[in-house]
Design goal:
The chain is α/β, with parallel strands linked by helices. It has 11 helices and 12 strands. It has a 5-stranded parallel β-sheet, sandwiched between helices. Helix 4 crosses helix 5, helix 4 packs across helix 6 and helix 8 packs across helix 9. It is globular, with a radius of gyration of 19 Å. It starts with a helix and ends with a helix. It catalyses: AMP + ATP = 2 ADP. It is an enzyme of class 2 (transferase).
Length: 290
């Protein structure tokens, strides 16, 4: 822990809530590191990855992708399937916003302008989440929304091993339409989407259909739109992502850890294909088919 705290201090990122030992694992030897990278199912580039027994799968995965691509949806499903915590930095930010704590006003201004939250704030929120995870005896994670920059990726690499980075991809025009269709129930907090996306194949681009994800009757009258889900803000967020976050793909690609996955449609079309790409077996697929 002392070495970790020194690392974060040298980068000016140590808040009053330091990272806990749950998230910290020492680096492996080169041979062990090579074996670690190929301990999960699926493939990276031309390399076929041997499966690991699900009972031993204490994964530490990262989900990348533009805002609105569905990182939270697929990360959450895999979290339930594999029995590891899903840590979404976007949710951490929204929880802090709703808490009316000391950071809430500052965060509101940042989010409403479509800007990225600073590394210092994200590290502080993530630290608190990892402390809570350790207290509950949880291990492993699927990170959603972090890292977004090379600097964040380097910080994460310095404090924990990442086994796999899944990069979800979707056309920008469809991303914008998806984001503008997002709705949240202001009572139960669940997310829905009223967008009915049906793009025909043309100019070499495949057709994509994404059905709406409507709320149940009890939530219909309680739907609200996120303050940052306006066309101007959404496009600004995508622009920032492209400028600052896409180099993270190269960071992980150079380490042989990046798996790119083009979403072929909505959840019914994409989920089984994602499971196949991760080489999860049929029994596991059936256990989360609902």
């Amino acid at each position: 822990m002392a070495a970790l705290n020194r690392l974060l201090r040298t980068r000016g990122l140590l808040s009053s809530s330091p990272f806990t030992s749950t998230a910290c694992r020492s680096y492996s030897s080169p041979a062990a590191e090579s074996e670690r990278k190929f301990s999960f199912g699926g493939s990276i580039g031309n390399n076929k990855i041997p499966r690991k027994d699900p009972s031993e799968r204490d994964v530490q995965w990262v989900f990348l992708g533009c805002p609105g691509v569905g990182k939270g949806t697929y990360a959450s499903r895999l979290s339930n399937l594999l029995g590891v915590p899903h840590i979404a930095t976007g949710d951490l930010v929204r929880d802090e916003l709703s808490s009316k704590g000391p950071l809430s006003q500052k965060l509101a201004a940042i989010v409403n302008q479509g800007k990225l939250v600073s590394d210092e704030i994200i590290i502080s929120l993530l630290s608190k989440r990892l402390e809570a995870q350790e207290a509950k005896g949880e291990s492993g994670f699927i990170l959603d929304g972090f890292p977004r920059t090379i600097r964040q990726a380097e910080i994460l690499e310095g404090v924990t091993d990442v086994d796999l980075v899944v990069n979800l991809k979707l056309r920008e025009d469809i991303l914008v339409e998806k984001c503008l269709g997002r709705r949240i129930c202001n009572q139960c907090g669940k997310n829905f989407n009223i967008a009915n996306i049906n793009v025909k194949a043309e100019n070499g681009n495949p057709g994509i259909y994404m059905a709406p994800l409507p709320p149940p009757a009890g939530c219909e009258s309680k739907l609200i739109t996120r303050a940052d889900d306006t066309e101007e803000v959404v496009k600004q967020r995508l622009r920032i992502y492209n400028e600052l976050s896409q180099p993270v793909e190269g960071f992980y690609r150079s380490r042989g850890m990046l798996m790119e996955f083009d979403l072929p449609g909505g959840i019914p079309e994409s989920w089984p294909k994602l499971l196949h790409a991760l080489n999860l077996d049929q029994e596991e697929k059936q256990s989360v088919a609902a």
